[in-house]
């Protein structure tokens, strides 16, 4: 692990009556003499099995792509699609649920490649300013695409927009019963880690429902310990009445 990079994570079960549905990857590894930081939040719904499958398989599938080093974005997109296909094939075993995902691959501490489907989010802090690196895939924003696939977006009073009246995200892994109307296409962002970069946050939507990107950055900007920063961020979300399962990773560049 790079001497000048530290990382930590924290997870908290929400107030719902089901088991914790979030899974996290926060690790460093070596591949072809390069150092890789692998970070991910998988936020499951209708059960945790799809998120658990992603935790153990998605990065393996990404790194197996033959052109990962030369065509990184295309390789990640292919791996997202092939992993989703595996999940759909195993629907009897994994159940009818699904999962969002945000993944970040740090290459030699210098280049960060972020991909996501759903509403878990990656944010980088540069010179104290928050910059979002992922895209929130909300049904209201992708209504025309969902309708072209034969689905619909409902927005009942007092509720959030949902695909076919069920799912509050427009892209996800799994969800076999809705897949004809859902996408698993990731958005991919490539960011150079320069001297201005202070830290990145990856977190499930339980944080972003109650904290803006800048509020999240400001909450932890003076906390040097990455794991403590992740814990403090979750505590801040809970203090603002977030009731969801919450997972958070913080990666600090020193």
Automatic annotation (TrEMBL):
Swiss-Prot/TrEMBL cofactor(s): Mn(2+); Mg(2+)
Enzyme class: hydrolase
Name used for this protein in its record: protein-serine/threonine phosphatase
Domain PPM-type phosphatase: from-to ranges: 6-253
UniProt keyword Manganese, yes or no: yes
Species in which this protein is naturally found: Corchorus capsularis (Jute)
Annotated EC: 3.1.3.16
Domain of life: Eukaryota
Keyword Calcium among record annotations: no
Family: Belongs to the PP2C family.
Keyword line: Hydrolase, Magnesium, Manganese, Metal-binding, Protein phosphatase
Catalytic activity: O-phospho-L-seryl-[protein] + H2O = L-seryl-[protein] + phosphate; O-phospho-L-threonyl-[protein] + H2O = L-threonyl-[protein] + phosphate
